[in-house]
Specification:
It is built from 4 helices and 2 strands, in the order ααββαα. With about 110 residues, the chain is an alpha+beta fold. A two-stranded antiparallel sheet has the order 1-2. It starts with 10 loop residues before the first helix and ends with a helix. This is HK97 gp10 family phage protein.
């Protein structure tokens, strides 16, 4: 007598579910970092334009999920790079949150 076990594992479905979970997580983290950057921005607002222009987004680049944090005013490069980077917020926010985000990714794919 032989016992037959049905294997319902579908690799394509697993890939789609994994990508969806990673995408949802990355989008959530991008929005969280956007909020954190807006709160922690080290400059004094004059018009609030720079702070309100900060955006956190996520997208796929091939098979890699990318979190993008951007400032959408023409003077944002000055805030990020000039004055010994005293007013930088985008890069420090990404660097400070990268370990947490990577740990979260690892939990998703286990």
């Amino acid at each position: 007598m032989s016992i037959r076990v049905r294997n319902n594992f579908n690799p394509l479905k697993a890939l789609i579910k994994t990508r969806a979970a990673i995408g949802l997580y990355a989008d959530t983290e991008a929005k969280r970092m956007e909020g954190k950057a807006k709160i922690d921005a080290p400059w004094t607002d004059r018009t609030n334009n720079a702070r309100s222009s900060i955006r956190g987004n996520f997208g796929w680049q091939g098979s890699q999920a990318k979190i993008i944090l951007s400032g959408n005013m023409d003077y944002f490069p000055y805030l990020e790079l000039a004055m010994e980077k005293r007013y930088a917020i985008l890069s420090p926010t990404l660097q400070n949150n990268a370990p947490k985000v990577l740990k979260g990714y690892q939990k998703l794919v286990k």
